[in-house]
Prior knowledge:
The structure holds two protein chains of two kinds. Helix content of chain A is 44%, strand content 16%. Chain A has 17 helices and 16 strands. Chain A has helices at residues 32-39, 51-61, 78-82, 87-101, 114-118, 123-134, 154-163, 183-195, 229-237, 250-264, 269-290, 308-318, 333-342, 355-365, 374-382, 392-395, 404-420; strands at 17-20, 43-49, 71-75, 107-112, 139-144, 168-169, 175-178, 201-204, 214-215, 220-223, 241-242, 298-301, 322-328, 348-352, 369-372, 387-389. Chain A has a six-stranded parallel beta sheet with strand order 1-14-13-12-15-16, with helices on both faces. Chain A has a four-stranded parallel beta sheet with strand order 3-2-4-5, sandwiched between helices. In chain A, α7 runs parallel beside α9. Chain B is globular, with a radius of gyration of 27 Å. In chain B, α12 links the parallel β9 and β10. In chain B, the strands form four sheets. A five-stranded parallel beta sheet of chain B has the order 11-10-9-12-13, sandwiched between helices. A four-stranded parallel beta sheet of chain B has the order 3-2-4-5, with helices on both faces. Chain B has a three-stranded parallel beta sheet with strand order 7-6-8. The two termini of chain B are 45 Å apart. In chain B, α6 (129-144) runs parallel beside α9 (213-227) and α19 (471-487) packs across α20. The interface between A and B is large, with 62 and 55 residues.
Amino acid sequence: MNVPLPPTNGGCRTAPVLKERGQREVFCGLTGIIWLHRKMQDAFFLVVGSRTCAHLLQSAAGVMIFAEPRFGTAILEEQDLAGMADAHVELDREVEKLLARRPDIRQLFLVGSCPSEVIKIDLARAAERLSQVHAPHVRVLNYSGSGIETTFTEGEDACLASMVPVLKDTTARELLVVGALPDVVEDQMVSLLTDMGIGPIRLLPARRIDDTTAVGENTVFALTQPFLGDTHAALERRGARHLAAPFPFGDEGTTAWLRTIAAEFGVSEETFEAVTAAPRARARKAIAQAAEALRGKSVFFFPDSQLEIPLARFLTRECGMTAVEVGSPYIHDALHGPDLDLLPAGPQISEGQDVDKQLERARAARPDLTVCGLGLANPLEAEGLSTKWAIELVFTPVHFYEQAGDLAGLFSRPLRRKAVLQMEAAE
Amino acid sequence: MKLTVWTYEGPPHVGAMRVATAMKGLHYVLHAPQGDTYADLLFTMIERRNHRPPVSYTTFQARDLGADTATLFKASCQDAVDRFDPEAIIVGASCTAELIQDDPAGLAETMGLSIPVIPLELPSYSRKENFGADETFYQIVKSLAKPQDRTKRVTCNILGPTALGFRARDDVEELTGLLSDMGIDVNVAAPLNATPTDIARLPAAHFNVLLSPETGEAAARFLEKNHDQPYTKVVPIGVGATRDFIAEVAKITGVTGRPDESRLRMPWWSRSVDSTYLTGKRVFIFGDGTHVAAHARIARDEMGFEVVGVGCYNREMARPIRALAKEYGVEALITDDYLEVEAAIEKLSPEMILGTQMERHIGKRLGIPCAVISAPVHVQDFPARYSPQVGFEGANVIFDTLIHPLVMGLEEHLLTMFRDDFEFHDDAGPSHHGGKAKAKVEDAPVEQVQPQNDNVIWLSDAEKELKKIPFFVRGKARRNTETFAQEKGLHEISLDTLYEAKAHYAR
């Protein structure tokens, strides 16, 4: 009864994908730091990069940057470019200073950027060396958040993937839930699964380093975010098995996600119903209210976070919208497949971007709502299109039942606002 | 390497974007990796522009590295020219592209484009945003300005206003009005809203008004040297500076027109009795060199403040700011490290900070009122309302901006007078929030004073007395008293120590 039915006209899994290359209007992976550092309370993210990287973090972090955040940039200067020899000495000194000032830090991430990747500073080796110097108090890891390698949320993927090889071994049959979620959402998820009798539940990333997240051949893992391709691969290399499911957005997505895990752990239909019935009813009611303004409206997704496909699935199936184009920076069949199965055929699925061509398509389609980045949102509003800026979907609690109404609300608010603003003379 | 969290300035290519976005009919082709488009949102969000910045990025990715990136650059160039049909393009590299050495200038030149191609050399690892803007504007002027006859009427150019410039939009308008009052027309204001064709017309003006030395000085010098146009050295921010500016313009041009002062309210506002309490307020001033210099003069000579420290983050202005500090008898702080700024502010304990967005947050942390006088600024400092800094209306705006964070004179007086009043104590809360004042419980235990300094102990009498001081100066009183006690070698603070310290610091 609760198994979501595939659309009668077929889904989008086998739909032709428009693959484009050209100018991309996207963030680089460094931006992942902004939400990751809130989640991992004892971690510091040290970007090795240029003033541009520092400026990007400052622009993306907005007001948060003034709260003594646990991230910073070691800005490369001219002398660092001149010779490679002392880049490591310089880095060691900056790390030494940093850790002396912040003794509460237990994990340090050296985050690679475009400049550090292009001049090939070996941050992996630096991380190993610094780990030895600062052990056992501080663990130093490395990943790249550079724009040449990662797009926006892929920064989180690269970060989590860097942690997988150092996770403890276990032979226990455990559920590992992967993807950084706001604490309130994480707590709801853990409580739903616990109420079904599923456990122990491990989280990646954990809130603190001392939490015992382990992995092994008997581990099964579920992803809460669709952008975790490398982490998925790294976990499979450690022998863990992926539970493929639609992502937990909306009533349907959340139920399907939970059901996949429940089936794996042999939870009875009665138990599943008992645990999910009340929150499902709440979610349905909240969505129905928030989605009133969305019914029958068209939506166009510019690529940003890889959340586009599951969100398009939620908006079309649960809010009555039609999708014109669903753009994603990358599409992984293993991850996006279940959502593509449920997304009713019709929209153009596109991967990658040539922003000017995509803008032409959006202008021609005149969608009722365009989901895009902040560099495009105001210019499109000025052209008369209603927009929903996509970054908010990454920062705001939107997963699982209790947030389903808020999620629909994020999309309906711009349309409601357009309807209420009346600046013309009343006559 | 240098560890950084806040940066006062972006990289130089953001400066180039500020010039390109300010102009019309110009396009910037930037050789940059995927992700550098983040800078677009500074313009579309902070400045709320209703169009995309005229910048094409090559957005190369890891798989493009190698010979491919040069082809990518040429394709982007051609595409930008075909799509946007600009009058001219500027081409350059961001920090990463600087490392892969594709030479955008050389590549663009070989393409045989029919429009002017202006190459930029912006050293990302040694210079910053303001340099990028100044250099870009200079290169554009150098490439496009044509020798020509002067206009018949006395005209001038306004040089330096850019996109993301602090109050640049309204400064140009105010300045245009001021000059018009004097009988001088503006030939071209640039780069803001100018086209490449307008840039070609720059040498027709009789002189240049350098509104923003940070972003226009190189172009002003070039025009002086090559087109014999003198440029103004006084930036007309503040009443005195505006009058000096008018005199300077009169001297350059011989025009005798006097601007209308009928709407200049700032001098009277500052003389009126409610402003008496401003006398000797200790202010710390930090920002870009131009705004700091202007505000130091306003603070001392027009508001009657005491300037206790000045500094700037742009090293291009280090020399004039050092000279200014000497004149004011204070130390100059030239740094782009906000931790140094924070330390200086903490040490000086000013009663007010005039600074940037960063200082606003430092002020919030330290409980010191702050007014924003310089970039970098956030979205609230690109206001919808008319808010120039220059000229006479600018002086009115600045007066309001500087006093709003302070407690008004009468209010301060009342707070001090009734600080022990049973319904007017610290915990009562502001009455305009509609909350009912909680009556003071007389024999409630006095909350333990946490000394900021481990070496001194507050005796209970002194502690009680400290609590009677209004909350907004209590922090300073506590710090001063503790410093005083330490200097005297005292380990305990008694009531007497408190008042001795008060007398010691009295002005």
